[in-house]
Amino acid sequence: MKITNKHGLPDAVYSALSKSNYNPGSSDYSVTTILKPPRIVQLERRHWDELEEDVIDRVWSLFGSAAHNILEGHGCEEAVTEKRLYANILDRKVGGQIDHYLDQCITDYKVTSVWTLIYGSRYKEWEEQQNIYAYIFAENGYKVDKLQIVANVS
Q1: How confident is the model at residue 63, as a pLDDT?
Q2: Is pLDDT at 150 greater than 80 in this prediction?
Q3: Residue 70 has pLDDT above 90, yes or no
Q4: Cβ-Cβ contacts under 8 Å for 113 (sequence gap 6 or more)
Q5: DSSP SS3 for 28
Q6: Rounded distance, CA 86 to CA 129, Å?
Q7: Which of 143, 141, 147, 129 is nearest to 30 (CA)?
Q8: How far apart are CA 32 and CA 137, in angstroms?
Q9: What's the average model confidence in pLDDT over 2-8?
Q10: CB atoms near residue 74 (< 10 Å)
Q11: pLDDT of 107 strictly over 90
C-alpha cells in the first residue's frame, strides 16, 4: 500500500502515522479480516501494492495504538493482555489478539468519536469481533463468560 501525505503533515507526524506495528502472526485470516466482505478482502490482497491511503486517515489508529500501549502495562499480574491466539475454522487458521482477559472476561479497548456511540454505528461489528475472540479463546482452553467494550471517546 502506498502511503501519501496530501495534507503536508510534518515529516515526524508522517513517519509516525505511516508505520504499522500490526502483525497477524501465522494466521490465514485475522478476526477483523473475516468481518469484512469477502470481495473486499480478495481485492485488497490482489491489489495491495496499488492501493493508496493518506496518513491523515490514520490518526484514529495512532490514538488507539497509544491507548493500547498505555493500558497494556497497567493490568494486574493475573490478567492476560495483548495475547494472540488461533483457531482452525473451515480449514483456515484464524487469529485474534485480545486487549485484556481477566476473570473469564474479554475486554476490548476502543478509541472512537462520540458520534460512533450516539449512532451506534460500530456496535454490531464490535459484538461480532468480541464473539469471535470468545470462540478462539474457548478453543484454546480459556473460559469466557463475559465480553465488554471500553470506549474512550475523543
Answers
A1: 82
A2: yes
A3: no
A4: 60, 153, 154
A5: coil
A6: 14
A7: 129
A8: 15
A9: 95
A10: 8
A11: yes
